[in-house]
Amino acid sequence: MEKALKRRDFLKMAGVTALAVSVAGTLGGCEGEPNSPSSSSSSSPASSHPDSSSSSSSSSSSSASSEEPASAKIIWSISANSDGTARLTGYDSAGAVPAGEITLPTKVSGHTITSVDCDLGKRVTKIIIPGCIKLVLNIAKDNLSLREVIIQEGVEQLGPNNYAYSYRSFAGCKNLSNVQLPKSLKVIEQFSFADCTSLKSISLPEGLTTLGEKAFYRSGLRNVVIPSTVTNLGNWAFSESSLEDVNIKCGEKGWGFFGGYQTFYSCTKLKKVTFNDKTKEIPNDMFKKCTALETLTLPKNLTAIESGAFGCTSLTTISIPASVTSIGNEAFSECPSLQKVNILGSIVEIPWACFQNCKQLNAIFLPMTVNEIDSYAFNGCMNLQHIYYPLSESAWAGISIGDYNNFLTAAELHTNASPLMI
Question: Strand locations in 41-84, DSSP E?
């Protein structure tokens, strides 16, 4: 009887064991169907090597090797030329997005990159532009992450040669604070650094010939030296910027096609201007609304002061050199703090509204060559007390004086006089 019980217990235990083995086998069969291996992706910075051979059409294949995944590389797009050069036009979204410090490639798919017209996006903090790239069009406008730009020797031009307002190389990069320009740079075209409000200083190279329209418009520049080689100065090149000190070494050969109209218009912090003695003319409205400019020494070989050249509310005195032969309309109008003026040049006319609304003007020396004072020339000069003239009273009587110059005709005339001490 005892043996029979042991036998039944044994069979029961054997059945349980068999069932356990069967279940285990079934579970083991589920694990036997391998899943796709999971990959843990960590974000790595986009890599860009100056000798990159990536192209806009690149196929990638999965591999178990330890090579860097294709997604970590920027896949550059180009527009190729038949001579083996190319323009960099952008990057493929299949690759990495440019970020951090970027050195533009020198070659892509065997083509040498000689120009750039693309938007690198808003994540790039530093850009290095190699010297093989001669022309930079669009590249980083309105990028608030950009802090630094290094342009290497060989680069010649920023921006196009025409009025294509869509091209604004670094315009609107409000946190850009460091820019290094090469000696090879010849042209900085329109809007290149407009609204770069953190850019406090920049060294413009000798050899630069063109500063385009609004090149540094509303920038944060506090001081600038304009090289002697500049022969084409665009309208509003530095207007509404934060400039305090300007050294103008150019101007001997004029200001080019656009003539430097309103170059420093409304630079309300500008206090000091230094001219090259060979500068020939002050362009139209060049210093209009430069409200902090109190004194100014004009170049000794200056020949012309164009219309509206000044209009500086803090300017107190001015001496126009003997070399000047013409002054434009309204050249000094709306200079309410102007008190003394010497005109030493051989001009024949004081033009229309030349000193209009110079409310503090007290004394002026006029040259013997003047034979006409146009209408409104001294209109609104309510404090004008003294006119100094080097010839006789009869010679003064021969000068034609236009309408609305009542304050001039009421002032005391000093004949056979010498220039004022200014």
Answer: 76-80
Q: Are 278 and 303 in contact (CB under 8 A)?
A: no
Q: How far apart are CA 266 and CA 218, in angstroms?
A: 10
> Token digits for 389?
């003239």
Q: What is the spatial order of strands in the sheet that 245-248 belongs to? A: 223-226, 245-248, 272-275
| pTM, full prediction | 0.82
Contact 77, 89 (CB under 8 A): yes
Give backbone dihedrals phi and psi of 201, rounded to 5 degrees, phi first: -150, 155
Note down pLDDT in tens along the chain; length 422 residues. 444 444 444 434 444 333 333 333 333 333 333 333 333 333 344 545 555 444 443 333 222 323 334 447 999 999 999 999 999 999 999 999 999 999 999 999 999 999 999 999 999 999 999 999 999 999 999 999 999 999 999 999 998 876 655 568 999 999 999 999 999 999 999 999 999 999 999 999 999 999 999 999 999 999 999 999 999 999 999 999 999 999 999 988 778 766 889 999 999 999 999 999 989 999 999 999 999 999 999 999 999 999 999 999 999 999 999 999 999 999 999 999 999 999 998 999 999 999 999 999 999 999 999 999 999 999 999 999 999 999 999 999 999 999 999 999 999 999 999 998 76
Other beta carbons within 10 Å of 93: 8
Residue 401 and residue 332: Cα distance in Å, rounded? 18
Q: CA-CA distances (angstroms) from residue 323 to 139, 300, 301, 304, 306?
A: 46, 7, 6, 9, 14
Q: For residues 72 and 96, give the distance between their C-alpha atoms in angstroms, rounded to a whole number.
A: 5
Long-range Cβ pairs for the range 355-360 (8 Å, 24+): 355/381, 356/330, 356/380, 356/381, 357/333, 357/381, 358/332, 358/333, 358/334, 359/383, 360/336
Q: Is 126 exposed, middle or buried (0-12, 13-18, 19+ CB in 10 A)?
A: middle
Joined together, the tokens standing for residue 390 give 């080097």
Give how far Cα 30 sits from Cα of 19, 21, 37, 81, 230, Å.
Answer: 18, 15, 16, 58, 79
Report the amino acid identity of residue 38.
Answer: S
> Number of helices (H) and strands (E), helices first, in the chain?
3, 27
The Cα 235–Cα 261 span in angstroms is: 5
Beta strands in 71-190, from DSSP E residues, in sequence order: 76-80, 85-91, 100-103, 107-108, 111-116, 124-129, 135-136, 148-151, 157-158, 178-180, 187-188
